[in-house]
From TrEMBL:
A biological process term (GO) from this entry: DNA damage response
Keywords for the protein's UniProt record, in alphabetical order: Membrane, Transmembrane, Transmembrane helix
Signal peptide interval: none
Transmembrane spans: 12-32
Domain of life: Bacteria
Lineage, opening ranks: Bacteria, Candidatus Nomuraibacteriota
Protein name: DUF541 domain-containing protein
Length: 277
């Protein structure tokens, strides 16, 4: 049975209209998605930005102690040998206190000359002074002074990590008797902060999110996707034991067996930008 031509033409027209409408639908859908991604994080998007703060506290579990060994001598090798003698005394003492080799680190070893400016005697110049015609020597600079080496200074810095922090005071007292110089510390820290930093960050994010929810409700808008995120923050101030008090204790009174450790604060500050709808 042959289909009349006018039916075929009408079917073709209906199909063409359907395809046109379908193409327009997908074009509008694609354009909307494209604009959504394009506006993500751009200055054209409607956004709100909130900051959040989070912090956690923990008792420190590591104490760091710092000292320098410095010696002078006429010959460089003698200065280095003198440093080595003091260093051995300090290391032997640290071993008696249970400090592991991996927790002792030397740095900034140096040997440098000591100079002194000396002026050689200048030739005498006779000058006539006074009405009696008597002569005398006139002092003057004849330019024959120079820098000469008078000795050498050898030095080395050492950092000690004390894991049994209750021994920090006694260790500093003992080091003060070995001949080291510039003894300072302890600096109380936390050996592994990653978990604490993550906890502080989560608190900061929750803080910013709650602020954003309240603001969005007040503005009568809804929160969309996060378009920007940044984090700051840091480590709470370490507890330092006064260097002067430590050095005075080596000659006047003993250092305390235990030093107050307190708590360290680890904080995180985040800034979050939300798209709003």
């Amino acid at each position: 049975m042959e289909i009349p031509n006018h039916y075929v033409k009408n079917l073709y027209k209906v199909s063409l209209v359907f395809l046109t409408v379908l193409s327009l639908f997908f074009a509008v859908k694609l354009l909307a998605e494209f604009r959504s991604y394009k506006l993500m994080g751009s200055s054209e998007a409607n956004t709100i930005t909130l900051s959040g703060h989070g912090e956690v506290t923990a008792v420190p579990d590591v104490a760091s102690i710092y000292f320098t060994i410095s010696k002078d001598a006429k010959i460089g090798k003698d200065a280095q040998d003198a440093v080595a003698v003091i260093e051995k005394k300090a290391l032997d003492f640290l071993k008696t206190k249970g400090v592991a080799d991996k927790d002792i680190q030397a740095s900034n070893a140096s040997l440098y000359p000591k100079y002194e400016y000396r002026q050689a005697a200048c030739p005498e110049i006779q000058a006539v002074t006074g009405s009696d015609g008597e002569s005398s020597t006139m002092p003057y600079y004849c330019g024959n002074g120079k820098q000469i080496i008078v000795g050498y200074t050898a030095s080395e810095s050492i950092t000690v990590k004390v894991r049994n922090i209750d021994d920090a005071g006694a260790i500093m007292q003992g080091l003060g008797t070995t001949g080291v110089s510039d003894l300072s510390g302890p600096n109380f820290t936390i050996d592994n902060e990653d978990d604490l930093k993550a906890e502080a960050r989560k608190k900061a994010i929750d803080d910013a999110r709650e602020k954003a929810k309240v603001l969005a409700k007040d503005l009568g808008v809804r929160l969309g996707r996060i378009s920007n995120f940044s984090e700051g923050g840091g480590y709470g101030g370490p507890i330092m034991y006064a260097e002067k008090a430590m050095m005075d204790s080596t000659v006047s009174s003993p250092a305390p067996a235990e030093l107050p450790k307190g708590e360290n604060t680890i904080s995180s500050d985040v800034t979050i930008t939300y798209e709003i709808r």
